[in-house]
């Protein structure tokens, strides 16, 4: 929300920068949580799958070798029962190992392949949603920033006394102005103390400022003047 008081403009600018930083941080964290971590988890399956496929290929070679060995033993002119039995056992063992791995992969690979569409669609939709929200919120911040800068640009610098005042004091006694450059005070008046425009004009024991009531009513430094410091008390 834009500030209506000039002395709040610098605060508005700081809030815009702060909100922008928070929005970027939040967007980055959600992007990591909803996209990058999910993507890493999904892609993390592939090294294991690749390793198991390579193992299946090696076991297929072992299985083929056992089949050829069994066939060769059976075709021999002199069939030896012990060799045939051993070759048959090796064939069964090689076949069992290969088929166990192969069956598992036949069940997992189609499921993994089919899951890619849903995973990528959900991930990209999530990223698109995060980007849409980020740009929408950033647009609001930019609009507030532009509005504040326009207000500052159009604001007469003399009306920024609230942003530039040093401190404020309260009049403890009435003071009747003797010259046109002096500020007349009534006990209880609050004065916004500002710096002298020309340091050479500064007199010890005298301050320059504008009464808070005049500032609130007129927003004008033209009503500022000098006054004795010992008639006031710092707040």
TrEMBL record:
Ranges in coiled-coil conformation: 77-108
Keyword Kinase: no
Any Pfam family: BAR
Gene Ontology BP terms: cell differentiation; endocytosis; establishment of localization in cell
Segments forming domain BAR: 1-158
One MF annotation (Gene Ontology) recorded for this entry: phospholipid binding
Keyword Transmembrane helix: no
The SH3 domain, residue ranges: 164-235
Name listed for the protein in its UniProt record: Bridging integrator 1a
Organism: Sinocyclocheilus grahami
């Amino acid at each position: 929300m834009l500030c209506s008081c000039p002395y709040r403009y610098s605060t508005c600018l700081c809030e815009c920068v702060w909100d922008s930083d928070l929005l970027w941080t939040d967007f980055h964290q959600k992007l990591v949580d909803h996209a990058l971590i999910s993507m890493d988890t999904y892609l993390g399956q592939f090294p294991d799958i690749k390793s198991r496929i390579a193992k299946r290929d090696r076991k297929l070679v072992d299985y083929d070798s056992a089949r050829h060995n069994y066939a060769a033993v059976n075709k021999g002119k002199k069939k030896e029962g012990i060799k045939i039995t051993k070759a048959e056992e090796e064939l069964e063992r090689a076949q069992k190992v290969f088929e166990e791995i192969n069956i598992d992969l036949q069940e997992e690979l189609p499921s993994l392949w089919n899951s890619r569409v849903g995973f990528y669609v959900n991930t990209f939709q999530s990223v698109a949603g995060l980007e849409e929200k980020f740009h929408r919120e950033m647009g609001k911040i930019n609009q507030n920033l532009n509005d504040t800068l326009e207000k500052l640009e159009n604001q007469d610098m003399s009306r920024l006394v609230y942003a530039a005042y040093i401190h404020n004091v309260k009049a403890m006694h009435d003071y009747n102005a003797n010259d046109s450059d002096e500020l007349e005070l009534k006990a209880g008046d609050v004065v916004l103390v500002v710096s002298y425009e020309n340091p050479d004009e500064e007199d010890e024991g005298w301050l320059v400022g504008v009464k808070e009531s005049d500032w609130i009513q007129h927003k004008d430094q033209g009503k500022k003047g000098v006054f004795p410091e010992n008639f006031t008390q710092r707040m």
